[in-house]
User: What shape does this take?
Amino acid sequence: MFFDLKPYQATEVACQSGVNIYCLKNPHTLTLTYNREIINSKERPLSASEPKRLLKVRKKELIKTMLVDAPLLGFLVWLMGYLAGIALYFVFRPDVLGWVLFVIFTPIVAFLCYWRFRKRKEAITYYVFVAAVWLIVAVVFDYVFLVRLLNPPVYYKLDVYVYYASTFLIPFLVGAKFGSKRLKSL
Assistant: This one.
């Protein structure tokens, strides 16, 4: 896990704001960079509280980012499909509406995930978490606002299961491909 890093590990830890913390092989030094430009080119001794403070900043930033990526984006993606489904309900037959929405919104969601995750360096578990939250949001809101509220005769068909699978797989696969943590040896 990220928060268990030892100072002697040769890894790069990247924050979304662009601050990279290099934990060098020497346990008594640390070099900070900002947007790949060296701020302090000389290695300097670490104070006792500095690594803990930097990790607290990273933890707060990760929680804030996670709140945007997981529940907020998951809800917005679900809401786009829900509103489009209501708007297109009178244009397409209900048995093909799910497939039409799937064809329209799959590339849009894939691009949204790519745009959001392309410059990240998060662990794969982060994207599993985001994908799981998106899936939970989709299942719960579909049940509450479609199954219970509109009471369709048959809702859970193949198109809905494919939609649920893609709701999990798109953020996970795009995040794993374009936003996963890449460790660099020093």
